[in-house]
Amino acid sequence: QVQLVESGGGLVQVGGSLRLSCAASGLTFSSYAMGWFRQAPGKAREFAAAINFSGRITYYADSVKGRFTISRDNAKNTVYLQMNSLKPEDTAVYYCAADWTLTSSANEYDYWGQGTQVTVSS
Q1: Which among 9, 25, 63, 106 is placed 20 to 30 Å from 114, CA to CA?
Q2: Rounded (5°) CA angle 113-118-122
Q3: Cα–Cα distance between 25 and 1 in angstroms, integer?
């Protein structure tokens, strides 16, 4: 049974930083691309960042480029999202997801975590 468990969310002030983690089990983690998505209240789920199976290729939404960094540790079956210079519009539930291919399309992802709340206060 595949499980993706996010952690690291919380309340942070504008300009602050958080690091999200997503621990995977039940799949060959090093074979999967991983993505981070987010969903704000009343809005559709949107792509934030993705990383290929080896970690050599990363892909970001324009809204987070230069502020967020995705990385992975295949030995620990974990993907991370370092979020810096946070803005109120970054407030959302953040989800990690796994897929065979590197993509920004949520519909392509096979497995999803339960999400972790990030709130940026002004």
Answers
A1: 63
A2: 170
A3: 8
- In angstroms, the Cα distances linking 4 to 14, 29, 45, 113 are 28, 10, 17, 5
% of residues, the chain, pLDDT over 70? 100
- What SS3 class is residue 40? coil
**How far apart (Å, rounded) are the C-alpha atoms in residues 117 and 91?**
8
By DSSP bridging, strand 10-13 and strand 116-121 are parallel
Which own/partner pairs from 62-66 qualify as long-range (CB within 8 Å, at least 24 positions apart)? Answer: 63/89, 64/90
Per-residue pLDDT of the chain (122 residues; tens, 9 = 90+): 999 999 999 999 999 999 999 999 999 999 999 999 999 999 999 999 999 999 999 999 999 999 999 999 999 999 999 999 999 999 999 999 999 999 999 999 999 999 999 999 98
Residue 30, classed as helix, strand or coil, is: helix
Dihedral angle, C-alpha 51, 56, 83, 94, nearest 10 °:
10
